[in-house]
């Protein structure tokens, strides 16, 4: 199989049962009991106010009555960070049961390469053209060598689970990741960098690329919740 080099990530919202109405319905049961279901579409302005109140005062549980399933294809080093988020459910492709496709991550020209500042608050600045050329050449060379070794072992009849030990974390993998809106907001607050956030985070750019796409998909299905998250400076409830 031909080796393929990529700089991007794939994110698709493949399945969801998630809307602002789910939040309203869950919150109003505390005062209205079963009849809260009828209230959902009744008064959009009140709904906006209620969602904002829940977000501001960090009443998080009404945001849990939703599910969003994302398909993600990204390098393995992104998955290692992603899977630290324990409130998601995951299923990932297997390197034991299938031959892994030779698709490898090479940073794009706009990826900032040089790290300055102190741990926990790094800034990244552009690399020189020479530094970019070095990264591109060194990563591709390492990938070719690693994949060549993998291929040689498979061709000699070695088990996939043994042969894969030589593959690097720049290899792409794919997974389904399912969460509710509350878990997603916690993820987004940590994996996007916003200067105006109440608690600015400093994530690795590649997981931020995934987070930004997830946020776009989510904002389209829960616009009031997303607006309240932004208005409350991206503090997860
Ligand atoms: C910029 C950045 C740098 C990082 N650097 C490192 C690093 O150097 N080394 C490292 O090991 N990790 C690192 N991490 C990972 C980090 O420590 C967390 O594991 C990760 O961000 C997941 O956060 P979480 O626990 O809030 O998420 P989730 O696991 O999704 O949990 C969501 C929330 O549920 C609650 N919760 C979940 N499980 C428990 C539990 N067992 N007990 C109590 N409450 C729970 C908490 O309120 C938690 O915030 C880094 C993360 C970021 C964003």
TrEMBL record:
UniProt keyword annotation of Flavoprotein present: yes
Biological function: Catalyzes the reductive methylation of 2'-deoxyuridine-5'-monophosphate (dUMP) to 2'-deoxythymidine-5'-monophosphate (dTMP) while utilizing 5,10-methylenetetrahydrofolate (mTHF) as the methyl donor, and NADPH and FADH(2) as the reductant.
UniProt keywords, alphabetically: FAD, Flavoprotein, Methyltransferase, NADP, Nucleotide biosynthesis, Transferase
Catalytic activity: dUMP + (6R)-5,10-methylene-5,6,7,8-tetrahydrofolate + NADPH + H(+) = dTMP + (6S)-5,6,7,8-tetrahydrofolate + NADP(+)
Name of the coding gene: thyX
Enzyme Commission number: 2.1.1.148
Superkingdom of the organism of origin: Bacteria
CDD domains: ThyX
InterPro entries xref list: Thymidylate_synthase_ThyX, Thymidylate_synthase_ThyX_sf
Chain positions recorded as dUMP binding sites: 81-84, 92-96, 164, 191
Any one GO molecular-function label of the UniProt entry: thymidylate synthase (FAD) activity
Annotated positions binding FAD: 61, 84-86, 92, 180-182, 186
Lineage, broadest ranks: Bacteria, Bacillati, Actinomycetota, Actinomycetes, Streptosporangiales
Name of the protein described by the UniProt record: Flavin-dependent thymidylate synthase
Active site: residue positions: 191
Cited HAMAP family: ThyX (MF_01408)
Main enzyme class: transferase
Cofactor note: Binds 4 FAD per tetramer. Each FAD binding site is formed by three monomers.
This protein's pathway: Pyrimidine metabolism; dTTP biosynthesis
One of the GO biological process terms: dTTP biosynthetic process
Known partners and oligomeric status: Homotetramer.
Organism: Actinoallomurus iriomotensis
Family statement: Belongs to the thymidylate synthase ThyX family.
Cofactor: FAD
Record has Lipoprotein as a keyword: no
